[in-house]
Specification:
With 383 residues, the chain is an alpha+beta fold. It has 2 domains: 270 residues, Aminopeptidase (3-Layer(aba) Sandwich), CATH 3.40.630.10; 87 residues, no CATH class. The strands form 4 sheets. Strands 1, 2, 12, 13, 16, 17, 18, 19 and 20 form a 9-stranded mixed β-sheet that branches. Strands 5-10-9-8-7 form a 5-stranded mixed β-sheet, with no helix packed on it. β3 and β4 form a beta hairpin.
């Protein structure tokens, strides 16, 4: 434990010495590294990420929101794949993540058999209760339940012949009470401490499938975590008239579970939140950003656009209505004014093994950072 803490402190020291885009690049590289194993349910990936983020916040001078710990603990059920994930089709061993995925709600199975074609994309091994599908893109997720059969998705582009025989050895582990937590910090306001601006991002991702394949989650959502940490670092050094709060959610990939838990067990009075900005998929931006809830809060959206035009930060700020597609949603449902911002253009990797730091441009990281600073100035300058 002491060695682990020393490693985290060393990483924190190295990262806080960097600035701007260098800081962002180093942070994304770190969060997507093998050490964090996709920030999921195997190899303690999510736990390691939570510890790392907490150490970062402490190094910035950001205080625990609860007054004691950065961690707001909660738990939920999840299906995981910590062991063997071996698949052969037509006698050829396939590579997990690249050639195939096991759907996250599948049960484990060991056996071999013949596949019967059902239609152009579905094949069944009835004896072993296995369904094989051909997919245009392999996209993984997280699930809280387990089926009584197994679904194997193959990359359609890589199949030169139709699947006819199958041999598998797949181990799943259903965890009924996976323990994790949100990471929550504050920088107290100097003039109006009961008026709060909140920045959020989910730090969890999909973790690993077997012991050789993990999903790095660079754009989703090491990029958002990095932007919120950049803001936490800045505001830790520059306290504002309003209180600045920072929440990193767990369980987003399994169904917005962390943000739902926080809104049901808030560590701050939700009525005191002047505005909440949720950041997810922040690694590109050559085509601008989209703002969910823009049409719900037209006054704040007009301010955001005005700030962007004055500063010439992003090429476009698109308006979108209400959507339950990220962690802002349960706050909005509780009456908290909130935006969810995501960047547009560039790489298409999403929920796959190709969402890596090396190909994430972070080309608008600094512009978005500065846009958010000025937007917050506008919110705090209201009369």
């Amino acid at each position: 434990m002491k060695l682990k803490l020393l490693t985290l402190l060393l990483l924190a020291t190295q990262l806080t010495q960097a600035q701007d885009i260098k800081f962002a690049r180093k942070m994304v590289d770190t969060l997507t590294s093998k050490y964090f194993w996709g920030r999921g349910y195997t190899n303690d990936g999510m736990g390691k990420a939570a510890d790392f983020i907490s150490v970062q916040l402490k190094s910035y001078g950001v205080k625990p929101m609860s007054g004691k710990s950065y961690l707001q603990e909660f738990s939920y059920s999840v299906n995981a794949f910590p062991g063997k994930v071996e698949v052969e089709i037509n006698g050829i061993a396939l590579v997990p993540g690249k050639d195939f995925l096991i759907t996250p709600d599948s049960k484990g199975v060991k056996g071999e058999g013949k596949l019967t074609q059902q239609d152009s994309t579905h094949f069944i091994d009835q004896a072993n209760r296995i369904i094989v599908t051909l997919e245009n893109k392999l996209t993984w997720s997280a699930e809280q339940t387990v089926l009584d059969y197994t679904v194997i998705q193959l990359d359609k582009k890589l199949q030169t012949t139709l699947p006819q025989t199958i041999k598998v050895d797949i181990e799943n582990k259903f965890i009924p009470n996976f323990k994790t937590g949100n990471i929550c910090g504050v920088v107290k306001g100097t003039v109006k401490p009961d008026s709060i601006i909140v920045f959020t991002a989910h730090y969890d991702h999909l973790g690993g499938m077997g012991d050789k394949t993990f999903f790095p989650g660079a754009n989703d959502n090491a990029s958002g975590v990095t932007q919120v940490l950049s803001l936490a670092k800045y505001y830790g050094e520059h306290p504002q008239p309003y209180t600045m709060a920072f929440i990193f959610f767990a369980g987003e990939e399994a169904g917005l579970l962390g943000s739902k838990y926080f809104t049901e067990h808030p560590l701050i009075d939700l009525k005191n939140i002047r505005f909440l900005i949720n950041l997810d998929l922040e690694g590109t931006g050559i085509e601008g950003i989209t703002v969910v809830n823009a049409s719900v809060f037209p006054k704040e959206f007009a301010l955001l656009k005005q700030v962007n035009e004055k500063g010439n930060y992003l090429v476009k700020v698109n308006s979108r209505g209400k959507a339950a597609n990220s962690d802002h949603y349960f706050f909005s449902e509780k009456g908290v004014p909130a935006f969810f911002m995501y960047t547009l253009g560039g790489i298409k990797a999403y929920h796959d093994i190709y969402d890596i730091s090396a190909t994430l441009p972070l080309n608008e990281h600094e512009d978005l950072f500065n846009l958010l600073l000025k937007f917050n100035d506008g919110l705090m300058g209201e009369r």
